User: What shape does this take?
Amino acid sequence: MSILSKRVILTGGAGFIGGNLVRHMLRAGYHVLNLDKLTYAGNLNSLADCKGHPNYSFRQVDICDVEALASAFQDFRPSAVMHLAAESHVDRSIDSPDTFIRTNVLGTYQLLHQARLYWSSLPEDQKSCFRFLHVSTDEVYGSLGGEGLFSEESRYDPHSPYSASKASSDHLVRAWSSTYHLPVLITNCSNNYGPYQFPEKLVPLVILRATRGETIPVYGQGLNVRDWLHVSDHCFALQTVLEHGECGETYNIGGNNELKNIEVVQTLCDILDRTYPAKNGESYKSLIRFVQDRPGHDLRYAIDSSKIRTKLGWQPEWSLSSGFQQTVEWYLSNKSWWESILNGNYRLDRLGVGGK
Ligand code: NAD
Ligand code: DAU
Assistant: This one.
């Protein structure tokens, strides 16, 4: 990809990974058009430092809006699409699956369709350079027992409305590759953590509830296992796949950082005890409470990321301990960012037990 053709339409750029990726791609010399509907999870405050950047632009666009998508392609003339826009929270998908089907399935379809119309109209040299990178999740593979890892060949077996909608979108992307030869790439990544994550997710939820002296809810017995990756390592992996991945291929991304949820919570409490000791002198661990489990809670996710490591030379830079420490410090130093969220509709409450 030449410097002249580094023009990316990035969907979901006002969200957690998308915002970090906008910043990453600008630093890498790309022109970025961020298309985001600004749902509850979209937050332009996360991109305050990008506003006014000569290579950055933003449009408030719903990916289900065909006309808005068509004019974005025609006006911006991208050399690539990085598709992150989605409803992303498993607990919310249990309460209200409809928006997950709409955005993750129908929205991905509309984006693929518009990308194909635009791509088909390109001259041959630009056509062969064009890429559609679909950003997906390890949750499409379902749940592991105590042993084994998800590889790119693992069978799809999604369990939640969220993971089923993401699995559907992955299949649509593959169908556009097989049927129309759209040059696609798919990534399936494990749990991300880091700056600007909406506080409904486990890591920021623990940090914010603990420092406010509120109980820390651990679902079930806290024995479910996730594989954790710093968001900036995910961003670097996405740039690597975009630039060097083979069309039509899937790449699993993970950090080899498996932890039980209770270990995640205890580690964060230990960091907080050292960094921001509670005024009553007690450990934050005293706030931990085991609560009703998530319906359909997958036991274990673990990623075999040897393909992206060996074929594309990617590897993560953050260790879990330095990444968790940096993340705790970021939330402690960026109170105004999360306070403005908590002044809205979401107040760190339990989600996902009241399916409608
Ligand atoms: P997020 O919820 O923080 O952000 C999602 C963004 O998409 C928001 O800015 C929201 O406004 C936007 N959006 C939602 N519906 C839209 C629509 N109809 N049109 C346009 N924009 C819309 O999500 P995230 O955690 O940053 O995840 C980003 C992507 O990465 C998702 O596709 C998710 O499935 C995938 N992913 C996330 C993780 C993780 O650990 N967070 C891991 C693997 C893959
Ligand atoms: O694996 C990748 C996925 O990781 C992404 O595709 C999703 O978009 C992302 O939200 C994340 O899904 P999880 O369900 O794993 O993340 P969450 O932060 O919601 O929960 C992490 C684990 O912690 C999970 O096993 C449920 C548990 N949990 C979560 C919350 C919010 C608790 O025990 N207590 C909580 O309060």
The chain is about 40% helix and 15% strand. The pocket of nicotinamide-adenine-dinucleotide (ligand 1) is lined by residues 11-12, 14-18, 36-39, 41-42, 62-64, 84-88, 103, 107, 135-137, 166, 189, 191-192, 198 (CB under 6 Å). The longest strand covers residues 131-137. The radius of gyration is 20 Å.
